[in-house]
Design brief:
Blueprint (H helix, E strand, L loop, with lengths): L17 H12 L18 H8 L11 E3 L5 H9 L5 E4 L1 H4 L10 H7 L4 E6 L5 E5 H10 L8 E3 L5 H8 L25 E6 L4 E5 L6 E8 L2 E6 L5 H4 L13 H14 L5 E5 L3 E5 L4 E6 L3 E8 L5 H11 L1 H14 L1 H14 L3 H31 L5 H19 L6 H15 L13 H4 L11
Parallel strand pairs: 1-2
Antiparallel strand pairs: 2-11, 3-4, 5-6, 6-13, 7-12, 8-11, 8-13, 9-10, 9-12
């Protein structure tokens, strides 16, 4: 107006720093979803009452799993009743009885605030590279998220570097699990085996069996989890509930518990559902199907292991699924526990298993995998370009990047981040790791059954 000021234009409040970071992580983690798709089932809104009902239920059946007290259980009794026959159980009181500094200290708020600027892994992108988020950004996300199946901080590097060393010294491998035969080969190239997990409610892991037939222990330090177990001999199509899925269904943990398990029960499928409370440790033998959902915000630590009672099952899996690493493992057994190496060779002879033949086939598979990976990357690059796309220039750029990476990897690096990246890549080349109980201390004494050392996983 004449003689006056122009009307003020309402300005939009700037987006908090953490929000675009979270959005980018979501787009990488689940490329098949747009951002709205993360909330399409309404498990935090229109169907929140169903989730709350699940969170308030007890064990089904009431005696779903044996529950024992750590201080009343001897190692020998545990081995005879559970580890040798391969039967799962819940052991209460380990962190308190064994004096873990993490007990009472590792709450969600305290842990995320303590390592606010440290990035932890929350997933991996289509090309297998890890997706990491700073703890302060993840904390803001946890406080405000309404996703059906939220991002889940699940890191086998424990943040890496000095942070990893701090965390590993704040808990120890429970006395019931003294063996760690995989540690014989050293940490370099070893399949992922221990994790720290910080999970928002409704996050979880899909129905799966842990890799390489390893057994696992999972200790919960804060919040509650709900588990469902199916026996190892359950057919895969039954365990995965593919035959009862309807159009539009998903197989995320929250979908499994609220939609798929009721349909499996209607068909008479036997299962055990139970709640894990703070201070409880789940023992999960190799081969058991399991799906886990966080019914509160949780903090847990977990580890998969090979020991005196499950070694035959693990060797037979590892020699096929991780042939290159298994060859190194065998050489380490020869040096450190010759009797174990002899047992592995005897099994190979009994099974008429030729490791050299498999190594050649594995090399061929790796070439095919690289080609498939490059094909996916090429299609993705073309979609992003939308118009003109110079495939020759794109391929040359990939060759230059590969050459640069090769030069970098040929030198000794003291960078924990580069070591983490290398290990993550190797694990994606041979096999992927499962989650909860899907997969302590990695020391020679522990490996030989002579004691435990710091470390573990979910």
């Amino acid at each position: 107006p004449a003689g006056g000021c122009a009307p003020a234009v309402a300005s939009r409040a700037p987006e908090p720093v953490w929000q675009p970071v979270i959005k980018a992580a979501k787009r990488k983690e689940r490329t098949e979803l747009d951002l709205e798709g993360w909330q399409k089932y309404g498990f935090a809104t229109t169907r929140a009452h169903e989730f709350e009902s699940l969170a308030n239920r007890g064990d089904e059946p009431p005696d779903a799993l044996p529950r024992l007290q750590s201080r009343e259980l001897t190692v020998d009794t545990f081995w005879e009743r559970f580890e040798k026959p391969g039967f799962p159980c819940v052991i209460a009181g380990i962190p308190e009885d064994e004096g873990w500094p993490a007990w009472g200290k590792w709450t969600v708020d305290r842990l995320l605030q303590r390592f606010a600027a440290v990035p932890f892994k929350v997933g991996k992108s289509d090309d297998g590279s890890p997706i990491r988020l700073r703890c302060d950004h993840f904390e803001q996300y946890m406080r405000s998220q309404a996703d059906d199946s939220p991002l889940y901080m699940f890191d086998n590097k424990f943040g890496s570097g000095d942070v990893r060393e701090q965390l590993l010294h704040e808990y120890r491998v429970p006395r019931f699990f003294p063996d760690d035969y995989m540690a014989l080969s050293g940490e370099d190239g070893r399949p992922p085996y221990r994790w720290i997990a910080v999970g928002p409610k409704r996050s979880g892991t899909v129905m799966h069996q842990d890799p390489l037939n390893t057994s696992a222990w999972n200790t919960l330090l804060s919040g509650r989890k709900r588990w469902v177990l199916l026996r190892p001999d359950t057919p895969k199509h039954i365990a995965k509930a593919k035959h009862v899925m309807k159009a539009g269904d998903d197989d995320e943990a929250v979908n499994v518990f609220l939609d798929l398990l009721p349909r499996l029960r209607e068909q008479g499928v036997k299962m055990a559902e139970f709640v894990q409370y703070p201070g409880e440790t789940i023992f999960l033998p190799g081969g058991w199907w399991h799906c886990v959902i966080n019914i509160d915000d949780t903090v847990a630590v977990t580890q998969n292991y090979a020991g005196r009672h499950n070694f035959p099952f693990i060797w037979r899996s590892a020699r096929t699924e991780r042939p290159c690493w298994s060859q190194r493992w065998m050489k380490a057994m020869d040096v450190k526990i010759p009797a174990l190496a002899e047992q592995a060779r005897r099994m190979n002879e009994e099974d008429k298993f030729d490791m050299d033949v498999l190594l050649r086939k594995n090399a061929e598979r790796r070439v095919l995998r690289r080609k498939r990976r490059e094909g996916r990357a090429l299609r993705k690059a073309k979609r992003r370009a939308r118009s003109s796309f110079n495939e020759e220039a794109w391929r040359q750029k990939r060759l230059d990047e590969a050459s640069s990476a090769s030069d970098s990897n040929s030198t000794v690096s003291t960078s924990s981040s580069s070591q983490a990246s290398s290990s993550d890549q190797e694990s994606s080349d041979e096999t992927s790791s499962g989650e909860e109980a899907a997969p302590a201390g990695a020391g020679t004494a522990a490996a030989a059954g002579g004691g435990s050392a710091p470390g573990a996983r979910e």
